[in-house]
Write a structure and sequence with these properties.
365 residues, alpha/beta, FAD/NAD(P)-binding domain, seven-stranded mixed sheet, five-stranded parallel sheet, 25% helix, globular, disordered C terminus
């Protein structure tokens, strides 16, 4: 594409992770022309770039995408690199058109068509599917900048392994699954404090017999019951979105036995060191922030957000902006909407609407 040229596309899919690939699969099956653009250099990098020891909580037999089961249909638990490679193989197998290292900096609309801006290029499309998760913009509190510069601090998106940290104690802020697993890894050779309220814990371990019995049952429950079409799903959704998921693999007793010290919230900085909500100031050499993300959709210059900045949609359909869709958001339709287990169903529905809309004859007045 030449400088300043605008490329015409029927349907533009923004995001080439599991959500974007599932959308691409269904678009291809329905014969809808499309292009996937992704900011990463390689398919699967959203998984590949996470911390080294990460493994999935769901067994491999549940980890496929539409049209292709995960190759190892056993009760094993894939590493993040294995999932990344699976996504790459999926894209190659179905010959999905993906352009990498393409980051959309603005999405707007001119008349009936969308315009996506990428540096000095533009894409014009009839439909746009934002196929991205709710975890785009890592957040740290404002007072993080007040920490002593000798303290190594990083968000979990930048954490890979303990070698990145200084010798000495670590404060891990955020006690959900990510914080618990990172704290459990770090406590092997240093003192670790895990800050934040408990998110609860699942009543099973995925690797054990209890997991083999309960996970299939819970999977059916998640897909059929905990969604926005059922009364129980509607009641549960706001609570689930407000808090972290319960601990799955690393439990509270595992943390205690390993020597992780559980402490309250981190609320500020005193003399360059983190302050807890009980007034205690902790002398640590490192801080790992595992306290969440913002949506990170400021580049969408369209009226699809409510007063709190959340996307307003009906099962991924942005009704206020015809032709704009979302797939991959947390609890978009069900509690599994942002997972390999559930993303395919949401993608199928959204693409079905796109396909039907394209087939409706346009009347000229």
């Amino acid at each position: 594409m030449r400088h300043g040229e605008r490329e015409q596309i029927d349907t533009l899919v923004i995001g080439g992770g599991q959500a974007g690939l599932a959308v691409g699969y269904h678009l291809s099956r329905r014969g809808v022309p499309f292009l996937i653009v992704d900011a990463n250099e390689r398919t699967g990098d959203a998984w590949r770039n996470r911390w080294d020891s990460l493994r999935l909580f769901t067994a491999n037999k549940f980890n496929g995408l539409p049209g292709m089961p995960y190759p190892d249909q056993t009760w094993s638990f894939a590493t993040k690199d294995e999932i990344a490679n699976f996504l790459e193989s999926y894209a190659h197998h179905f010959e999905l058109p993906i352009r990498h290292s393409v980051e959309v900096t603005r999405l707007t609309k001119e008349g009936d068509r969308f315009v996506a801006v990428i540096d000095d290029r533009e894409y014009e499309a009839d439909n746009v599917v934002v196929a991205m998760s709710s975890y785009q913009e890592p957040t740290v509190p404002e007072f993080a900048s007040e920490l002593d510069p000798r303290i190594v601090q990083m968000h979990m998106v930048d954490y890979k392994n303990p070698r990145q940290l200084r010798e000495g104690g670590v404060l891990v802020v955020g006690a959900g699954n990510s914080g618990a697993e990172i704290a459990f890894e770090l406590v092997q050779d240093r003192h670790v404090l895990l800050s934040g309220p408990s998110t609860g814990q699942a009543p099973f371990r995925p690797e054990r017999l209890s997991g083999r019995i309960l996970i299939p049952i819970l999977s059916r429950l998640i897909l059929r019951v905990l969604n926005t079409s059922t009364p129980i799903g509607k009641r549960a959704r706001p609570k689930i979105l407000r808090r972290g998921a319960p601990l799955v693999r690393v439990k509270e007793r595992d943390l205690a036995k390993a020597g992780v010290e559980r402490v309250g919230r981190t609320v500020g900085v005193v003399d360059g060191y983190p302050e807890l909500d009980d007034g205690r100031v902790v002398d640590v050499s490192n801080v790992v922030w595992c306290n969440g993300f913002e949506l990170g959709f400021s580049w969408i210059d369209l009226p699809v957000f409510d007063e709190s900045g959340k996307v307003v949609h009906d099962r991924g359909v942005a009704q206020a902006v015809p032709g704009l869709y979302f797939v991959g958001l947390r609890f978009l339709y069900s509690i599994a909407s942002d997972t390999l287990l559930g993303v395919g169903r949401d993608a199928d529905r959204v693409v079905g609407i796109i396909s039907r809309t394209r087939s409706v004859p346009q009347t000229v007045s």
